[in-house]
């Protein structure tokens, strides 16, 4: 049987990262949150003398550990550098190598099923209504102590959705053979259960208990 390679894509706060982490733990697979790469490139371009293209070419795994990459501002900055074709091209090799290691892997992002691993046997496109996603992101920000208001979260998320879907270079788009998982009315457990059912319908089962 081929290694289990799971490609997960979707917009901000759809729940793709949470799902990817849980699937990786369940199947004992390495996980790459590809959004972190774009966040790290934007951070390096703002804090060093490198251009975004140079930062992408020089990126190392250790650069992804920076806690400053987790903020909403970093997400907005990431979506700007992510529209530069040469930045995407310079991040391709790292992601393809991660995806095609012998153990299998889980990757989540915007173009995993369409560009990074169109050959993945399991592709999941996670969505949720804008209202549900704004509510989730707002709750997360409040829990982290951020001082924000819902209309601002909504405006920023709508802008990022638009930028990610309308750009020419690898826009956010479902692969033709992706399983669509709308999590608007699902908690993380229900989304995990639905994804597992889909993966087992493809003939993959976890080996451990
Ligand atoms: O990675 P992405 O931006 O798509 O979303 P996330 O960080 O995985 O999830 C955003 C928030 O939604 C987290 O607080 C999750 O606990 C929550 N959530 C979820 O992940 N899945 C659901 N089906 C419902 C809520
Ligand atoms: O967790 P959230 O969805 O808020 O953001 P993220 O996954 O960390 O992605 C941040 C930004 O990086 C996105 O808005 C995209 O513009 C970009 N990105 C991308 O273009 N391609 C990917 N495979 C992953 C992220």
Automatic annotation (TrEMBL):
InterPro entries: Cytidylate_kin (IPR003136), Cytidylate_kinase_dom (IPR011994), P-loop_NTPase (IPR027417). HAMAP family: Cytidyl_kinase_type1. The gene is cmk. Belongs to the cytidylate kinase family. Type 1 subfamily. Pfam families: Cytidylate_kin. Residues 57-193 form the Cytidylate kinase domain. This is Cytidylate kinase. GO terms for biological process: pyrimidine nucleotide metabolic process.
């Amino acid at each position: 049987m081929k290694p289990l390679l799971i490609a997960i894509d979707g917009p901000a706060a759809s729940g793709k990262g949470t799902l990817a982490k849980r699937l990786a733990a369940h199947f004992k697979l390495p996980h790459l949150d590809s959004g972190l790469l774009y966040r790290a490139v934007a951070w390096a371009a703002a804090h060093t003398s490198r251009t975004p293209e140079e930062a992408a070419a020089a990126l190392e795994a250790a650069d992804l550990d920076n806690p400053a990459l987790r903020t909403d501002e970093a997400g907005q900055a990431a979506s700007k550098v992510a529209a530069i074709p040469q930045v995407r091209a310079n991040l391709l090799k790292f992601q393809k190598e991660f995806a095609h290691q012998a153990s299998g892997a889980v990757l989540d992002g915007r173009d995993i099923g369409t560009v990074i691993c169109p050959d993945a046997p399991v592709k999941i496109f996670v969505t949720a209504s804008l209202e549900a996603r704004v509510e989730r992101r707002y709750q997360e920000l409040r829990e982290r102590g951020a001082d924000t208001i819902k209309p601002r979260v909504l405006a920023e998320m709508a802008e990022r959705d638009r930028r990610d879907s309308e750009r020419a270079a690898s826009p956010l788009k479902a692969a033709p053979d992706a399983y669509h998982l709308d999590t608007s009315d699902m908690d993380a457990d229900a989304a995990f259960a639905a994804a597992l059912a889909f993966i087992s319908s493809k003939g993959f089962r976890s080996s451990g208990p």
